[in-house]
Amino acid sequence: MEVDEIEINAREAACQALMRYEKRGTFPATTLEELYRSNAMERRERALSAELTYGTLEKLLPIDYFLETVSSRPVAALDTPVRALLRLAAYQILYLDRIPDHAAVNEAVEMAERMSPRAKGFVNGVLRNLARQKELLFLPEGGQPDKLSLRFSIAQPLVEMLMQQYPDLYRDILPGLDTRAPLSLFVNAAISSSEEVGRLTGAIETKTPGCMLLPGGEVTTLDGFAQGAFFVVGRSSAFAVQAAAPKSGEIVLDLCASPGGKSFLCASLMLDQGNILAFDVSEYKIELIRQSAERLGFSSVLAATSDATNYNPMLREVGDLVLCDVPCSAIGTLHKQPEIRYKNPADFAGLPLLQHAILSNASSYVKPGGRLLYTTCTLNRSENYEVVRSFLSQHPEFQVLPVSELARQQDIRVMEQDGTVTILPSEELDGFYVALLQKQKGEPT
User: Fold this and answer.
1) Hey, which residues does 185 pair with through a beta bridge?
2) pTM of structure
3) Exposure string (b/e) for 73-96, b if CB count within 10 Å is 16 or more?
4) What whole-number distance in Å separates Cα of residue 350 and Cα of residue 346?
5) Residues 57, 322: Cα–Cα separation, whole Å
6) For residue 95, is pLDDT > 60?
7) What pLDDT does residue 27 have?
8) What is the pLDDT, as a whole number, of residue 37?
C-alpha cells in the first residue's frame, strides 16, 4: 500500500472517530477499533489514525483558539464534519512534522468535497491562512485559570478544581497531565522475567519492580504477548498492588476487576499460587478477563459477574486482601484518555456516594488481620481522601497502613495524607490515590 493511501485512510478513520465522539459521545478507542476491524486496516494505518485522533483531542483547546485566530467564523458555529476536518488538519499543521502542510490542507479539502461540498472553499482558506501564519501564533501567557486551561488543553472547571484542591502542587500536576504516556508492561513472574521481557520487546525497567516501559506501539503485536510473558498495567497500579503485598496462598477478592490488571498483578506477585476472585458487573468484561487469564496461564484467577455494591454473604470475611479499584472520574489519566480533559466536575459529583458504598461493602469481606486496598485513578480529593476518611469514621476496626516509604523507594512522588498517598502524575505515572487499610483482629465485625 502506498504511503499516500495509508495517510488518506488514517485521516478518514480519525475524522470518523472525532465526529462520533462529538455527536454520540463514543469513546475514540471504540470507534477506531471498529474501523480497524471493518476496514482491515494495516498496522501503519492504525498507528497514524490513533496519533491523529488522540493528538487532536489532546490539543483541542489550543487548536480551536488558533483556528479562530485565522477564521472569520467561530469553531462552535461550524457543522460537525467541517469542525472535525479543520481540527484534524490543524493538528497536523501545528503539531506534526511528518505530514507536510500542503498535504494536510489538500487532503482536508478533498474530504470536505465529499462530506460537506459547500464548505470546501472555507476549509481551504482557513487552513492555508493557518499554514502561512503558524510561526506567528502564540498562546496567551499567565497563571489565570483560563490561560492555564488553554495552555494545557484542559477544561477550565477542571483546572480550577485542581488549583483549589492542590494550591501548592497544581503547577506540577498540570504539566504532568500534559504528557504522552508510554506503554506500560508488567512481567508475568510465574513464567518470565524482566530480562526476558526486555529482550523480547525492548522495554526498559523502572524503579517499580516488574514494571517496564516502551515509547508506544500495539501490545498484541509484541513478541511474547501471545505466550503470556507480560500484560499491560500502569506503573501507579503496580505500585498500589505491591504496597498491598499479596502473598502466595492467600485469597484475594478484586471487586471492580475490569480489565483485570490488578488481578493479574496479584497472580504474578503470588506466582500463581493462591485464589484470586475477579468480579465485575459486565459479563462481556468478565469474559475478556477470562481470556487474558488463559493467555497468561493464571489458573489462580477466577472471574465472575457481581455488583460490588451488593452484599454477598458467601464472601463474608474470606479475603486476606480485598481490592477496591472503584469507578472514578479518571482525572489522573488525561495523558492516556484525552477525552476526559473536557469533563466538568459537576458530571462526577455523585461518584463519592457510589465509592463509599463499594468500600463499605468490601470491608465485610476482609478477614480479621486482612488488608483492604482502596484506589482510584483520579486527583479529585472528594473521591479519594474524603471517601476514606468518612469510611474510617464509621469503621474503627480498620486502620491505615502507610505506604509512602515504598513510594520513596520506587522514586514515586506523592502527597501524603494520614498514611494514604496521592501519586502526582508524570509521563510514567498516572495521577492515582492509594489507601491501604488493615482490619484489626479481635474487633467486632
Assistant:
1) 212, 232
2) 0.94
3) eebeebeebbbbbbbbbbbbbbee
4) 8
5) 36
6) yes
7) 84
8) 84
